[in-house]
Amino acid sequence: MRFALPIRQLSPETINRIAAGEVIERPASVVKELAENAIDAGARNLEVVTAGGGLSLIRVSDDGSGMGADDLALCVERHATSKLREDDLFDIRSFGFRGEALPSIGSVARLEIASRAAGSAEAFAIVVDKGAKHPVRPAAVNRGTLVEVRDLFSATPARLKFLKSERAENQATSDTVKRLAMAHPEVAFTLVTGERASLKLPLQEATPQGLLARLSRIMGRDFQADAVEVCGEREGIRIAGFIGLPTFNRGDASQQFVFVNGRPVKDRLLIGALRAAYGDTLPRGRHPYLALFIDLEPRDVDVNVHPAKAEVRFKDSGAVRSLVIGAVRHVLEQNAMRASSRGGRETIEAFAPVRFAGPAAAGGISVAAGRGSPRTTFAFAAEMQAPGGFAEGEQAPFAGFEGTSGEAGAHAEPVADDILDRPLGAARAQLHETYIVAQTRDGVVLVDQHAAHERLVFERLKKMLANGGVARQGLLIPEIVEMSCEEVEVLLERVVELESLGLIVDGFGVDAIAVREVPALLGQCDVRGLVRDVAAEILDDGAQGALSERLEAVASRMACHGSVRAGRRLTAPEMNALLREMEATPYSGQCNHGRPTYVELKLGDIERLFGRK
Description:
Blueprint: H1 12-23, H2 27-40, E1 45-51, E2 57-62, H3 69-75, H4 101-108, E3 110-116, E4 123-129, E5 132-133, E6 137-139, E7 144-150, H5 166-183, E8 188-193, E9 196-201, H6 208-219, H7 221-226, E10 227-234, E11 237-244, E12 249-250, E13 256-260, E14 263-265, H8 268-278, E15 287-288, E16 290-295, E17 301-302, E18 313-314, H9 317-334, H10 341-350, E19 354-356, E20 367-369, H11 417-420, E21 426-431, E22 435-440, E23 443-448, H12 449-466, E24 472-482, H13 485-492, H14 495-500, E25 504-507, E26 512-519, H15 527-541, H16 551-562, H17 572-584, E27 598-602, H18 603-609
Parallel strand pairs: 1-8, 13-16
Antiparallel strand pairs: 1-2, 2-7, 3-4, 3-7, 4-5, 4-6, 8-9, 10-11, 11-16, 12-15, 13-14, 17-18, 19-20, 21-22, 22-23, 23-27, 24-26, 25-26
């Protein structure tokens, strides 16, 4: 039963605790608020110390501008701030502009602040204990501010049951500090959890190289090797940062960091734009590594739409999305041929020698062997006798080549120096009728011939689509493909879109399709498999819009049928032609499914593998 109570004004302590429920969710929230205050104060060195997961102690010290006695007394009052210019909520150029953090923290814990202003010989301190404000007193600290928070949530013990383990809270605090450190490489950060320093980041120069050095300390050394710089500007919106190559990816989005005006955010618009920018270069379910920084006029973005300021709202979201997609795609195209350096390193590690006791061990001899035994021998020149190449239909660049794969052998004629200087070098052999071995000036390249040609065919299909449609070739006798009634229905509903892809189909009863024309680029392909794959792609899309929005996905399925299959013996000119077209084709470093098309092994790594260095 409800009772009507008279309206009354809440006490300041209750108001602060309500605000604390919105702002202070866990110890990491306290660290975020205090660290942001330090950065806004111009700190160059910032140290965070926690104990008991942040419940027992949180200490944040900085060498910023500090505060005098009057400012110190006022900073713990509700809605007191130095970060707004004439109460203009549309000109936010700092982090904590609401003035809620310090009084909220002081209402649920014991808060002590000691500070000395720049140029002052005196320091002062103030204590707020569970909402009770003590008078300002003299203190002894260096320039800057020292904030200690003890017994967090002791005034609201019910909140403690919602916290996780000490390890989980420490991890959340570490993630918070890392995000701030990524956005501010010019500030040195130290994080001590428990009794050990879990993070120590020296300050870096405010340059792209300094930013990359800071990012690599947080995201790993692999990121520095496989990251490319993004830089662009349009209509007053600027984007900068680094993104990982498509082949440098992971199974979750935990290594995607986006910042707006220096503030780490989680924005669906930006995540969607990044997914669109990478497009078909990533395997399904995989996510790239990246750290991007978007800057625009404060009046063009609302940072006050979320209590924790974790989300933003853009005045012109279309312009922001367009810039993100355009800048990322441009960089990916510029580095289209590069594959992750991790692939070569992992390949070398897979060949790391181990000792085993073989037949010769009885004689006291140790034999070095790889971790796995090869199933077959290398298919070098003498073993590569094929009746012809695969140049069929319009499968450029291979049409017109003659000869056998015997021309690409272990003892092939010397190649011109300028070819060795090409990114993918000169073809020297074919292994297992699947992999091309190429020699560069300073290493060896292994190419998956099917994956590589699949990407080449796909890019040619996309280019034809952009130019108005894919060229077709008619079948002398229509191919009748038996399918389920559902598959027949979805294909017949989209005959117009399929025609733009070079595929002409008609109904043939209720459970079959008659295929009359196919894309000329695919040559002699498996028509039945092609049509079934196209139907599967459409069904996978469900009822989400017209097929015209998914033409590239369908073209990707088609490209698989028109590419060089594994097991096809290639001639030396064919292999070299494949390498040259890869060098000239966007995104050739990965196949349509996002897997790498080649692995590069540096000569120095190979020599170390054999103990030559």
